[in-house]
Amino acid sequence: MNQNIGTEEAIKRWDSFADTYSANHTEQGDLHKEVFLNPTLLSLMETVSNKKVLDAGCGEGYLSRMLARSEATVTAVDYSSRMIEIAKGRTPNDLLIDYRQGNCEDLNCLEDKSFDLIVSNMVIQDLANYEKAFQEMYRLLGDGGCFIFSILHPCFVTPESGWEKTKSGKKLHWNVDKYFYEGVYEQGLGDKEKMLFFHRTLTSYINTLIKTGFILESIIEPK
Q: What residue stretches are annotated with the Methyltransferase type domain (predicted)?
């Protein structure tokens, strides 16, 4: 696949897929988020009341709304203009969420040290320049602030991962290959859409966080 394909192409595909994606989300997100991600993210956040929170890559906004209902002051950004439209449409007037279209790789519309908490839920793998995104999160956090993010597990979701099946369709095992490949690849979502993802190893993620200046406190693999 052409390695020059980057975030701009990913944005186009997410704009096209936004309505289908959002149709599968309730006020708790999709099933995967409701069962696995939300309990973990919320346990790491602890209390958010009266905190300034950035939802970095908010999608259709379910997590932003959850945070606002918990009395956080929420700013929500997403690089898909259609996602922002959907998020605004799903947000009641009494939830004062500041929705903005913006790429997490460059959020110069937001001031330095303006947030107590930044959460990025299943977003970083959608960005070509994750190093720049981490630098932006670091810039935007106030002293003592916390950055929490979730990603597809890079050990098991790789460019050539997937179920090995019999001719009758019975699942045999999950194939994992090209873990050390770093770059763009396509993966099907839904029946037709092929989305862009950007694979990196755990080593790259962790070392980049440390190089950026973050202190790593916890890694959780929900089960």
A: 54-149
Q: Which domain holds residue 127?
A: 7-152+202-212
Work out how many domains the chain is built from and give that number: 1
Write b or e for each residue in 5-27: b if 16 or more Cβ atoms lie within 10 A of its Cβ, otherwise e. Answer: bbbeebbebbeebbeebbeebee
Q: Which pTM was predicted?
A: 0.92
Q: Would 2 be classed as within a structural domain?
A: no
Q: What is the DSSP letter of 128?
A: S
For the stretch 101-110, pLDDT in tens is: 999 999 999 9
Give which of 121, 95, 139 is closest to 42, Cα–Cα. 121
Residue 101: which CATH number? 3.40.50.150
Cβ atoms 14, 80 nearer than 8 A: yes
Tens digit of each residue's pLDDT (9 = 90 or more) over 54-87: 999 999 999 999 999 999 999 999 999 999 999 9
End-to-end CA distance of the chain: 33
30 within a domain of the structure (yes/no):
yes
The helix or strand, by DSSP H or E, that contains position 123, with its residue range, turns out to be none
